[in-house]
Amino acid sequence: MLYPLMFRPITKQMIWGSESWDISCRPNEMGIIENGPCAGETFEAYIARNPEAVLGTHLTACEKFPLLVKLIDARESLSVQVHPDDAYARAKGEADSGKSEMWYVIKPPDEGHLIIGLKPGTTREMLTAAYQNGTVEQYLNRLPVQAGDIVNIPAGLIHALTAGVVVAEVQQNSDITYRLYDYNRVGVDGKPRQLHVEDALAVIDFDERIHKKVVEASATPKNGSETIMPIISCEHFTIHKYTLSEPLSESSDPEAFCIFTCVEGSVTIESKCAITELSAGRSAFMPAAMGNYIIRPHGHATLLRSSPASPICPHVHNI
Length: 319
Hints:
Blueprint: E1 10-14, E2 17-23, E3 25-26, E4 29-30, H1 43-49, H2 51-55, E5 67-74, E6 80-82, H3 86-92, E7 101-107, E8 113-118, H4 124-133, E9 140-144, E10 150-153, E11 159-160, E12 166-172, E13 178-181, H5 197-203, E14 214-215, E15 226-233, E16 237-244, E17 248-251, E18 258-264, E19 266-271, E20 275-279, E21 283-286, E22 292-297, E23 301-308, E24 316-317
Antiparallel strand pairs: 1-2, 2-5, 3-4, 5-12, 6-13, 7-10, 7-12, 8-9, 8-11, 10-14, 15-16, 16-23, 17-22, 17-24, 18-21, 18-23, 19-20, 19-22
């Protein structure tokens, strides 16, 4: 049965706040379908019954499900961290792949900025010395953000969410994080949290090849009934931003699935087999061979459409 799938959120309480894993297919964080005829089935079992129809013709040979979608609520700042690319993770013998990700800012941070990258001119030697003498914070680049902004965070870009921010996150299906600095906090066991300084320094982009910028909320016009705007396209995922105030009809892409994450307002997704209600902060998985569907916004709504790699944007129909 091919229809828009929603999953029971996997909630994780952290010392800095909480995460809700909305779309996850991992052995220890396996999504359980919560809607429609397949409710109660694991995501893994659902895929296994018909991989080509669920994942798409271009993804049937992939070793694991490629994406992970979360909602993150940071009451306090997260550790200053960085993720490796696939090559470094493989060379280290990590169980996961590398990790590139993106953030959509649902609620801006208390102080109006996120930590994205290092200040220009920072070298590995300078950051190593700063770690040793406790002055890491003076080298961190603070990037102003507001609600609706999007930040691309490829592997190698040092980053941290700051207190008060709520973001939707789309990432490679990996849980590798190298912490460089954690504000001298202790974990629930009362001991300092583990750092991964050597690995972090090995993968950080000191050459400033990665841009430290946002796709601003104002970049998407809201005066029309519908806007579909490409936001990010990389080797791991493609993100489109949908701004809707009228129904939109599309067809799924048989080459690859997609995921809709509602970040503002709410919508109803109507397919041949089911009607799915999608509210802000929730995601729906759209099987590749599902066929035609209609997205009906309840007033104004904003969605992120995430796809693995760079499949064709779905065909839009007039209705």
